[in-house]
Amino acid sequence: MNNSGNYRKLFEIASQQGGYFTAKQAVEAGYSYRLHYYHSHRGNWRNVDRGVFRLVDFPNSPHEDLVRWSLWSRSRQDIPQAVFSHETALSLHEISEVMPGRIHATVSPGFRKRTAGCVIHKAILKPEEIEKREGFFVTTPIRTIIDVAEGNISPEQVEKAVRDAFNKGLIRMEDLSKINVSQEARQKIRAALENIKKNPFF
Known about the structure:
This protein has helices spanning 4-15, 23-28, 33-41, 64-72, 86-93, 141-150, 155-167, 173-176, 183-198; strands spanning 20-22, 45-49, 52-55, 83-84, 103-107, 118-122, 130-133, 136-139. With 202 residues, it is an alpha+beta fold. The termini are far apart.
C-alpha cells in the first residue's frame, strides 16, 4: 500500500518518539488518511489515542508512557504542549527519593484539554527551564526543585533533591540562592542549603 521510502520516513519519526507517531506525522511521511485504518486493521499500527498510533513491532522503551502523554497534549499544529515536571521530573533527573504515584506535567495557562490520568499544572515556562528528552520535554533540575518546594513535598525531600542535584553537578548552590520563590519555598530551600553546608557528605 505504500513504498519503503514512506515507511523509512515514518520509522524515523517514530523511533524518536518511543514508536509513537501522530496522524499528521503519518501523512507527512506519505501515508494518506485513508491508509490509517488499513494499517490499523492489518495490525501494523496500534491506535492508542485519538490521532495517535504506535508501530506494533517497535520495542518497548523506558519512558514511552511520557511520550504518549506528550503527544496527547499536542496543539492543533501538532506541537506537544506538556513539559513533565514536579515529582515526575524529580524521578527523571534521579534526584530525591520521591516515587510519584501519578504523572505530573506543566502546560501553559491557556491549555484546555482535560484528563484524569495526569496531574496538570499551569505555568509559563521559560525556554531555559526546559530540557528535551527523546520524545518529550522535562523541566530543568533547578526549575523542578522550585516547583516541588512550592508544593506539598516535605522539607526533607526538598533537601534530598537539592543534595542529589548538587552532587550530580546538575545545579550550583549560588543559582538556588538567587531564585524568586514564595516565602515558604524559600524557607525549604534555605534550610536545605544550610544543612548541606553543615553536612556536605551526608
